[in-house]
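I have a small job for you when you get a moment. Would you make up a two-line entry for one protein for me to read? No commentary is needed, just the two lines. Write everything out right here, beneath this request.
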Amino acid sequence: MKQFFIFFVLLSTAIVAAQEWTTFNTGNSGLASNRVRSICVDGNNVVWFGTDKGLSGFNGTDWTNIVYEADKQQTLADNSINDISYELTGYGPELWIATDNGVSVMGCALDAISQATPYRNDNTGLVNNRVLAAAVDERHKKWFGTVNGISTFDGSEWASFTSETHLSNDYVLCIAPGDSGWIYAGTMGGGVSRIQDNGIDAITSASPYDYAWSGIMSDTVTAAYVLPSGYQWFGGPQGTAYHPERETKISWFIYQAQDGLVDNYVNAIAEDSNGVMWFATNGGVAKFTESAWSSITVASSANGLPSDTVLDVAVDKDGYIWFATDKGVACYRDSGSGVAGTVSRVDHYRLLQNYPNPFNASTIIPYDLQGPSEVRIDVYNARGQLIEILAEGSQSAGHHTAVWTGLAGSGEMVPSGIYFAVLQVKNVKGYFQDSIKLLYVK
């Protein structure tokens, strides 16, 4: 029987006061269509909307539209846009646009927008022209998820990956690059294909996150989001899953409607500048902060949200949350999000990497506790011998730190070498353990 943790959290049905809403549709703006599938914020804080009738951009004052025109060579590949990804290159800022008939790349600057150059499988190595997802990784490699596998483009060469090589399923719905070359591709029927690209000899490892071997509740994964820590969120028809690990079978946290998620069908996930998680679903918007859920729907937002079918969510540089729906877009801000002040969110247990590392005087070891717990932090040498106990006892939820000065429990300085810090947490929800490597240099 599959094992995983389910954390039951407080459900709050009301959104706090101090809300701000702005709604855009074809009747009051330059939006190309009311059916908006994708939102992307570029480096200049211009918000781009991928619709079923072309691309629209909004800089806070003016609108612009880019559409496919059959009689022009350099144009949008197709007006039916599925995803948009932003990249800052040596040539300037660019958008990569996934459509139903290929990929377009378009230069975008505050004072000028270049024509879009289309890439299709007749002039590139794109594995299929129906492209559902576009992403740019930390090495500036482009990743395109299609209905027939993944294609990559590093600026000069194309490569493709299918179920015959590294993918759990060829029908790729979303792509989220992580750190250290990790790529997470959500598929239809194959869960998540987790692959690693070291930038030298392409894919070096691949493994699936599926219903049988992980905490994902469905093998169809429509949304993937990777936090700066490398931890992942996934969404699909049966809720959302949080995975603060890379080990497939451990530390899965599952959230469904019974836990406070507004609707089980999750289309997109984003994090704002305060660490608040936002979920676009088929039944409205869900907000997750400090282990508490709240929801936004058409009924609760006083005509702010144009539709409960929310297809994408993005956060701009001013802290505003943008929602794409099948009836237009909405821009939202409340007292619980934005750039004015910060909120510390801890929704997991984890031991963070120490700093500095290596060290020769002292090092700080950060760790997070989702709830009140009995905590112990030990330091072991490479032979597994206990060297020192850094913390022991009851601690409150939140962010904590421990300090190690290189002293053993006897008061003597330890020799240079590799050591391990081990965090153990016990509370009413169970037991958690995590470890990191420390390098002490005299």
